[in-house]
Fold these 2 entries.
Entry 1:
Amino acid sequence: MIRKKEESGLEKLQSYGTVQLLRYMLLPYWGLLLSLLVLLLSGMALDLANPFVLGLFIDTAKSGGSLQFLWVLAGAFFGVVILRQAVLVCETGIASSLQMSTTNTLRTSVLRHCLRLDFSFYQTHLPGELIERIDGDISTMGNFLSRFIISIVGNCLLVLGMLISLILIDWRLGCFLVVFSVSALFLLKHLQQRMGPVWEMQRQASADLYGFLEERFSGTEDIRASNAVAYMLRGHIEQTRKMWRVASQAGFLSTSLFQAMHWIFTLGTIIALALGIWLFQSGAITIGTIYIIVRYSTMLQGPLMGFTFQAQDFQQANASLRRVRQMLGTAGSIVDGPRQALPEGTLSLAFEQVNFSYGLDMPVLKDLSFQVKPGTILGIVGRTGSGKTTITRLLERFYDPDSGAVLIGGVNLRDVSVQAVRSRIAMITQEVTLFHATLRENLTVFDTTISDERIHQAIALLGLEQWLETLPQGLDTAIEPGNMGLSAGESQLLTFARVFLKDPDIIVLDEASSRLDPTTERRIEQALDHLLVGRTVVIIAHRLSTLERADSILVLEDGVCQEYGLREELIVTPNSRFAQLLKTGLDEPVEAL
Ligand SMILES: Nc1ncnc2c1ncn2[C@@H]1O[C@H](COP(=O)(O)OP(=O)(O)OP(=O)(O)O)[C@@H](O)[C@H]1O
């Protein structure tokens, strides 16, 4: 129910324009918004009041008014300045809180959406780029939101207040400044339109750089080992050069815009001053009022220039919004089926005439069919690139077949929710991913319902009790990022412990023991004796010894089933491919058998 609600929320977000999105993000926080509005109005009133107080002070002083009144006016001026600062502090505090609340909601929605997308999405989007989207772009939108409220709304109110006051002082002067402000804004808008594409290019260049760095840092070991540091640095220099070009273009354009605005406003103030002097000479206004006119016309510069930067922020936020919407609009190709669960108990597996390609018109699995009975073990052998890992990806429903069906427990995976499938399968691959979190969290994968007692049982089963005792804080010990501080064997043993704790009905072991030394492998073998009992298992192995447990064997070549049968039978059939493999070893190409 909650998930349905979230999904419909996401769907809505994808179609929202800027204004709708602002409304969606801000409306739940209407209390904060209201307080902000009150503060903005108070700030505007205080900004408008100060020149009046000073104007009155000048007129009173010039006409020889009472000293006591002058002291009162000086005190009022001081009080207004202090109060204005206090209002400013509150405005900033409330706007920041509004920014954090709204952007955190959006950040979570985008992250949730990304986590649901399938493998093909992650092939075309590097992690660094996703970080830039989820953090960079949404922060830009958040900054815009908070500054938008304070500056755009505050500045609009201030400009309106000043123009109305100036019209009330003298309608001719007021009209001139209204015409001037509107023309300045049009000019600004025109100049601003040239900035949009440049900002978008700047953010894209930054996302590319993040993506590049992320990819290279994750392969640091390989880069050093293959002496590719110079190549990596060259790539980095090219990326930063691209960023530099776009950033200088953006910097040049915005500085020119700023300068142009500055000269326009200086001209406006000169004309307002000339008008003020003319009105004073004709006796229409006092010298104090000239001060108010000059003060207001210079004060106009702040908010109107503020609009320029807000328009810049708006364009940046719009560019960010476009990219975030684009990401939210990326639909996963894996669609949940209507069934919410697979049958209870031990599960069978079957591939029925499965054809599959990764979208490059190069079939990876061709008309593949096989069946695994509940509680039995299937061993898959084949040369590199023959499609073994692809079979496991289809089993976990990371992809759907192009034709044919993958069945678990007799149910076509297209008819079941992805969550229901993955909750019943555990996969141990060559890649061990440990999180920068405590040992407990790494073992339970953040499932707080798993008791410490069960964790200790799993650790004992893998013979890791002594290792656990050496850790300073036991299960609360933090695992360093990137599996640092753990040997390859220890990391893999921990992923085995994870599987024990998940207690799945199907286990997929993909080259699981390839990184282990003989002692660690023995430990794993002992643990597997317990773990595999009563479960359906798929073992992908390059070493034949790993297949000794298998009940049936599938020999795969270029995505085609070359042989499939019971292991015991294949062993005693002299011309079977498997029997010959046992003689020659896996190093020999299967084709040559
Ligand atoms: N994500 C992918 N996108 C495109 N092609 C892919 C992808 N993953 C694998 N392939 C291609 O699909 C074919 C089968 O790959 P797969 O990883 O399933 O083989 P494998 O038998 O598991 O190989 P290995 O023993 O090396 O792990 C290969 O030609 C490979 O290049």
Note: The chain has two domains: 7-329, 349-592.
Entry 2:
Amino acid sequence: MAMHKSSSGSALGPGGLDLTQAFFKSVMNAAPSSPTKRHTKISVIGAGNVGMAIAQTILTQDLTDELVLVDAIPDKLRGEMLDLQHAAAFLPRTRIQASTDYSITAGSDLCIVTAGARQIHGESRLNLLQRNVTLFQKIIPPLVRYSPDTILLIVSNPVDVLTYVAWKLSGFPSNRVIGSGTNLDSSRFRFLIADHLDVNAQDVQAFIVGEHGDSSVALWSSISVGGVPVLSFLEKQEITYEKEMLESIHREVTESAYEVISLKGYTSWAIGYSVANLARSILRDQRRVHPVSVLAKGFYDIDGEVFLKLPAQLGRGGILGVTNVHFTQEEKHRLMNSATTILQVQNHLTI
Ligand SMILES: NC(=O)C1=CN([C@@H]2O[C@H](COP(=O)(O)OP(=O)(O)OC[C@H]3O[C@@H](n4cnc5c(N)ncnc54)[C@H](O)[C@@H]3O)[C@@H](O)[C@H]2O)C=CC1
Ligand SMILES: CC(=O)C(=O)O
């Protein structure tokens, strides 16, 4: 039977009969779609390993009504779109579209940027910078033009500096430009602590702050399991622990990405879950605290225009606030070093 779509998107059968109305007449008359439910649209820029892991986690977790993919390679993009669309029978209903043309992103609530070069085995995140800045000069302006009220969530590396670049290129207030930050590093940290103590990672509260990468800072002093602060508990119980053991867990966190990249070529699943977790907090106004890249100027005595991972509350307006975590002198010193490392890199950029 020949069928085509009407301008309203419903299916038309022979003689122009509106099949959607024919099938669902009584239901549609009884219950017009609710005007109170908010429609959400997420665009993912870059349909590579990371973009597709994020897209598929967003779909399975039913986080949006519309999902748009943008990439520079049309065939691969269409292939990825069709492959996801073919899973429609197993997924919550979501409209999935893809194009190389940024007009498709118009009206997005959240734009997640994953496009760009990625590290090869042994390469540092900072080494990707100049190539990805050039790319961002092409990507950020059209996103802003088509979705002036959107929230930008940056994932491409080096994520802290690129979040700063996106902020500068967009002209957005800093609460609407967020870097995926150390949400992933903190998840790796929580996994390793949970593994060490044989508890559930979801019961471990632990943050990695500073740079996403080699100069990140582990906040040992504020780690708790099931609400019990770990280090002060061990000290009160006079249970000895080796500082070296703490250092080795942190080292394992910073080396995690290098290890996965050396084994499978890229990282994808954990960043997919991590970013979907951020998308949920933002779009569902969850007001949860995540370690993400925020404009750190004015917090913890930082005075440069630098984006660093700090524990921030996320909701519909983007960054709602930065929590006042207690840092030891050593943690503060390391955070300052992270800020200095990033500022030195930024000083050499032409945006
Ligand atoms: N922040 C974090 O925690 C993490 C960040 N990453 C970063 O994410 C980025 C992407 O990594 P992968 O997906 O593995 O790389 P990939 O190479 O698989 O995908 C990159 C995609 O970007 C697309 N692209 C290139 N130029 C474009 C343009 N002008 N417009 C739209 N799309 C364009 C490419 O066609 C490709 O599909 C890398 O920078 C990587 O380092 C990866 C894992 C974790
Ligand atoms: C590649 C990267 O940044 C990560 O997996 O942490």
Note: Residues 125, 157, 184, 257, 267, 271 surround pyruvic acid (ligand 2) (CB under 6 Å).
